[in-house]
Write a structure and sequence with these properties.
The chain contains two helices and five strands, in the order βββββαα. It is of the alpha+beta class and 87 residues long. Strands 4-3-2-1-5 form a five-stranded antiparallel sheet. It starts with 5 loop residues before the first strand and ends with a helix.
């Protein structure tokens, strides 16, 4: 259902409507990053029921996360900008 590198939107909380990228997930929670408010050093832990899934996965981010490559907050900002420019 969730995949690392997937773009999701917050449905609840002060970040409602904001786009994020899934950095990690477990049974109950999704850890999301946007590189701006929620940085890579401290991802937001959010319940799965409070997340709206999109079907877009940023393959470059996904590959870097899964391979343990070096990531910067700017990588997440650029990926979200690419996604927003599509629409």
């Amino acid at each position: 259902m969730y995949s690392k590198g997937q773009i999701v939107f917050s449905k609840r909380g002060r970040d409602k409507g904001r786009a994020f990228i899934v950095y990690d997930y477990d049974d109950d929670y999704v850890y999301i990053v946007d590189g701006d408010v929620r940085k890579l050093e401290k991802p937001k832990k959010k319940k799965k029921i409070h997340i709206q899934i999109s079907h877009h996965i940023d393959e470059a981010i996904k590959d870097k996360i899964e391979n343990g490559s070096y990531l910067l907050n700017s990588d997440f900002r650029k990926a979200l900008a690419r996604y927003n420019n599509r629409f």
